[in-house]
Amino acid sequence: MLQSKRVLILVVSVLILEADTTTIKWHSAGAPFGSPSAWLDDYLPCVHDLVVFPDYYPAILPLPTEVAVRGFQLPRQGALLLAEDSTIGLATGKGLNPDCDSDERRAVLKPPKTSKWFDPSSWSVQPGVGSGNSFSAMPDLERVPCDDEHVVISSNNGAALSFDLENVQYLRLGQLVLAGSSISRTYLQELMRRELGQLLFHNAQDVYVEYYRGELCGCHKDYEHLIEPICHNVESQCEQPHCVAPIRPLGSCCFLCGAMMTLPSPDCMAANRQELLTYINSLIVRENLADELQVHVDFVGSKQYGNSLQAIILDRGSYTERSIEIMHRVESHRNETPVLHKATRLEVKYAGHPYNPNVSFASVLLILFCVVFVGVVSIIILAHYMPENPYLNRIPQWIHDPRRWRWHHLDMRHLRRNLLFNRFDDASAGASPTAAGSGIDRLAVIGYDAERGEVRERSFNNPMFEQDEMTPETATATAKLSLPKGKSDPCPVVLSPNVETGELDSCSGGEEQELTEINLESSEAESDVEAETKE
Question: pTM higher than 0.85, yes or no?
Answer without folding.
Answer: no
